[in-house]
Amino acid sequence: MQPADAQRLIAQAVVPGEAWADLGAGRGTFTAALSALLGPGGSVLALDRDARALHSVRGVPGGAPVRTLSADFTALPSLPPHDGVLLANALHFVPDQQVVLLRLLELLRPPGKLLIVEYDMTRASAWVPHPLGFARLLTLSADLGWPTPQKLAEQPSRYHPQPIYAALITPLLG
Fold this sequence. Notes:
By secondary structure, this protein is α/β, with parallel strands linked by helices. It is about 25% helix and about 25% strand. The chain has one domain: Rossmann fold. It has 5 helices and 7 strands; from the N terminus they run αβαβαββαβαββ. A 7-stranded mixed β-sheet has the order 3-2-1-4-5-7-6. InterPro entries: Methyltransf_11, SAM-dependent_MTases_sf. Pfam families: Methyltransf_11 (PF08241).
């Protein structure tokens, strides 16, 4: 995915100057998108368990500064609260998504924005072992007693016939 595509997917959720965590940041496509959207007054924490991938993570000129941390987002270390948490193509690797989502509440300060980017698919594959299609996200959010996720954008996928979606949940409002 190109950085401009990542920005388009998440732009509606991001306010310049906020502090965000990008969990499962990988090589940083969405980290760079956050940096650009947040501007110099914001901040981004890029977290991934693959320390080698984090060497590629960068902000953008004139964007929010980026800090990296090598850790597994399913077993988060103690971190300060953020305005938003982004999980882009990360939750489909997690068998118990509900447990991880509940744990993420510790990373959010009210009103707490949780931004999910995933393939809108229902069948597992070798690359998406635990799919989180938008319909499943709606059910999961309802099961947690959270507000209904808002689908912000979609984009065709290069790898699957189903599109990629971005959805925003504000769990601390509910």
